[in-house]
Amino acid sequence: MARRCELTGTDRQIGHRVSHSNIKTKREFGPNLVNVTLHSEALARNFRFKITAATLRTVDHVGGFDAFLLKSSEDGMCDKAVKVRRELKKKLGEQAKAA
User: Fold this and answer.
1) What is the DSSP string of the chain?
2) pLDDT 10s digits, 56-83
3) Domains detected in the chain
């Protein structure tokens, strides 16, 4: 999973490098990836992910790592993120039954 956001699945984009004489050659635009450690309040654990800077801003905007995982779908997520999401839903389901 090189050069891909582990939470949203954002991947590289392909485009053209255009010279002054308008000659087009292929190039790629890579995502702005950062290595972060995100904390899950419900699971009381830290998780390391390689995500884009835009995803990091979205995680902060939504209200934290747990809220982001619950609101997003599993479509573009890596296997590790899907496992954390399912573990989180299971933990919150058990807490709701106990209350």
Assistant:
1) -TTS-TTT----EEEEEE-TT--EEEEEE---EEEEEEEETTTTEEEEEEEEHHHHHHHHHHTSHHHHHHHS-SSS--HHHHHHHHHHHHHHHHHHHH-
2) 999 999 999 999 999 999 999 999 999 9
3) 13-98 (2.30.170.40)
Per-residue b or e along 49-69, where b marks 16 or more CB atoms closer than 10 Å to that residue's CB = bbbbeebbebbeeeeebbebb
What residue has token string 């956001």?
Answer: 5
Beta carbons within 10 angstroms of residue 7's beta carbon: 26
Average pLDDT, the chain: 94
**Residue 2 pLDDT exceeds 90:** no
